[in-house]
Amino acid sequence: MKLIRLCLLFIALSATTILADQVYLKDLRITGNRITKKEYIMRLIDLKVNKSYDVDRLMDKMSIIKDRLYSTGLFENVFFDDQIDENNNLILTVKLREKNYLHFGPSGRIYYKDALYPDIGLYIDYLNLLGRNNRLYINTPMYENQGIAIKFQNDPMRNYQFTALLKYLVDKSNRVSESSIKSFTVVPEITFSVFNDFEIGSSFTYNRYNGSSFLFAPELSYSSNQKSKRHITLDTSIILGAGEQKSVIYGISSRANYKQELLLQMSLKVNALMDFLDGDVPKNLELTNRSRGYPYGYLSGNKRFYFTSEISFPLPWSPNISIAIFVDSDIIGYNNLKSILSGGAGLKLYSRFFNPLNIDLIVGKGIEINFNNEL
Hints:
- By secondary structure, the protein is mainly beta.
- The chain is 9% helix and 58% strand.
- It contains 3 helices and 22 strands.
- Strands 5-6-7-8-9-10-11-12-13-14-15-18-19-20-21-22 form a 16-stranded antiparallel barrel. A 4-stranded mixed sheet has the order 2-1-4-3.
- The chain starts with a helix and ends in a 5-residue tail after the last strand.
């Protein structure tokens, strides 16, 4: 890094009025940010112009700033270029190379059991809305069903997170009847960081099916250091609300996610979900099976235990392509719980516009091709 040369230069200029171990930051410049706003980048760079810095401390700060800029997920490369003017002042330039922020591809699935049941769609995912690291996700069905799902998420680098989901669906998949089923759901959610690894928040759900229903869900979550080889996420929500008949809805939802890096660039993911939801629950919000390889609504109930595990690894001759092997399982029902099990293998293709493209082949009650890119 050029700052090493800078240290030697200031030692040689110790006779000047500036201390040998001090540097005066005269100007700070940002280049390469075609889309990302300069104000957003400057918020992540805690350096002030017209201020003197200890050289060693400045180098440490630059290392931290570089990690912080990479952690936004917005940049492929981050470089620092330092220059000394005629008055021995520092001019620091942060040179950035932005990623592609627009991703798109297929979503949904194709299920076969005695007949073909395609439920496929198209998604568009934009990762830097307004140049401030806001995310906008749009998903729309392309076969049989009609509707749209829109999800907004603010900058993940802030100490609070706001997400909003709007979902409108016209379900025409019932081939016995020509009638369609309409549903409309809006879910705003906000969470705040309270400690290093803990967040608290709540969500509010308005759902329109046969009638209107409302849900309120306070939440507590924990997330370990994502930079370590082992990452754990835990969260629990308590659910209270009123259903279509103005009767009470109540429940609890807890989930645990575990990820660990293994040898030879292999990674292990394990997700577990436990749900209890009872009372005046509308049909489109009731607990149903999540396991791939089964029809939607194959099992339902007021209690659900879901488990999935996956091992993935990149191909040695093509690191942009990864293979995944996974198992899904549900235990679900009311008083009499039933269990299902499925498994399969998948392909993950990473490219400029796919992040990634998922194609999973699953065997369960039937055979399913799942594109695994839904909200």
